[in-house]
Amino acid sequence: MTRSVCVVGAGAAGVAATYALRDARAEVTVLEKSRGVCGRAATRRRDGRRYDHGASHLPVADERVAAFVDEFGADGLIDIEAPVWTVDETGAVNETDSDPTRRVAWESGMTQLAKRALAATEAAVERETRVMAMDRDERGWRLTDDDGGSHGPFDVLLLTPPAPQTASLLAATGWASERAIRLREAVGSVEYDGAHSVILGYDRPLDREWFGLRAATEDGSLQWIGRESVKAGHIPDSGEILVVQMGDAWARAHEGEFESESEAIADEVAALVADRLNEPWLADPAWTDDQRWRYARPASPPPAAALDAGEDDGLYFAGDWVAGEGRVDAAIRSGIEVAERIRP
Q: Of 87, 138, 320, 342, which sees the most CB atoms within 10 A?
């Protein structure tokens, strides 16, 4: 029997689940609030340049993630061979790759992860569709979007937005079940650290051996400095783009300034980077960009097995928050694992 499945969210977890269901007896509909896909694995373009301003790459340390990536072939795939080193608040660099796993990206940007996965399915993808409420009756799950549109009924509902947004949907449900309350409490217990990406563009190259510098501790202001020039196809001419990810404490301290003081914030970050790398010219980028990520890193997963309570009613969950790791590979694993439980 073919089952109808609705996946809310076209981030890494949602597209991985959709892809894993491609040869199952399932008709899949994906509802995505944005115009784009792949969530924080996001790519922007500027003057012929590309840069991944969210997830900088995909770590491939799991067999399921490796199979997922390799299904799409080598065309446009980048195996990043340059290392990731660590740096402390004094600028001291440890030239040892603490996690020397395979790292990949795409010449056209990290969004290719979702675009290629969805293209390999027959799923119906409805973009710019923000789900506001959900309900369940004897025919299945029904959803309402912010334009008043109705979707369903579906036999199975998979929720993949960040935990606070998923908890809001559970709070807006007319689902008459005590399990709804338990699930909302479990999902609502997940806390997040935020982040802020600042992109610094330069008209001259930065000669370094590393692909990225990762902060030695989680409380550091500069959590990540990544060189987009390492990725083929991202910077066609001579130059450099640094994607700098600031930590949660820094982002909170600057909350409220992001809209009105973005240029001043970029100047501050560029000065920090120049000091950290001991390269004074980095304090004066040719151009800048930025993005606030409110739900960047889940601090902890929900209580063990708490999310299983909805499965008898066809309600499932996936995302990096389910795994308790703010990594795109964790989101992919979560999507694949939940698809295995959904498969009829």
A: 320
Query: What's the rounded Cα separation, in Å, for the pair 225 and 223?
Result: 7
Say if residue 151 is in the same domain as residue 200: no
Task: Tell me the one-letter amino acid at 180.
Answer: A
The DSSP letter of residue 163 is: H
Please identify, among 277, 297, 317, the residue that sits at the C-terminal boundary of a domain: 297
Higher per-residue pLDDT: 241 or 1: 241
Q: Tokens standing for 68?
A: 């997922």
* 223 contacts 245 by C-beta, under 8 angstroms: yes
Adjacent-strand bridge partners of 16: none
33 closest CA partner among 164, 141, 161: 161
Question: Which domain range does residue 32 map to?
Answer: 3-41+114-191+299-342
- pLDDT given at position 259: 55
Task: Tell me the two tokens of residue 199.
Answer: 């992109």
Q: What is the pLDDT of residues 39-89, one digit of tens each?
A: 999 999 999 999 999 999 999 999 999 999 999 989 999 999 999 999 988
Report phi then psi at 324, rounded to 5.
75, 20
Are both 138 and 168 inside the same structural domain?
yes
The CATH number assigned to the domain holding 55 equals: 3.90.660.10
The residues pairing with 199 across neighbouring beta strands, listed in sequence order, are: 243, 289
> Residue 294 and residue 164: Cα distance in Å, rounded?
10
Region of 239 please: left (phi>0), alpha (psi -120 to 50) or beta: left
Per the structure, how many domains does the chain have? 2
Q: What is the CA radius of gyration of the chain?
A: 21
Give residue for tokens 């700098």.
244
Query: How far apart are alpha carbons 269 and 285 in whole angstroms?
Result: 11
In tens, the pLDDT along 232-275 reads 999 987 899 999 999 888 877 776 655 557 778 899 999 999 99
Rounded Cα distance between 114 and 84, Å, is: 25
- Over the stretch 138-161, which tens digit does the pLDDT of each residue have? 999 999 999 999 999 999 999 999
Contact between 118 and 127 under an 8 Å Cβ cutoff? The reply is: no
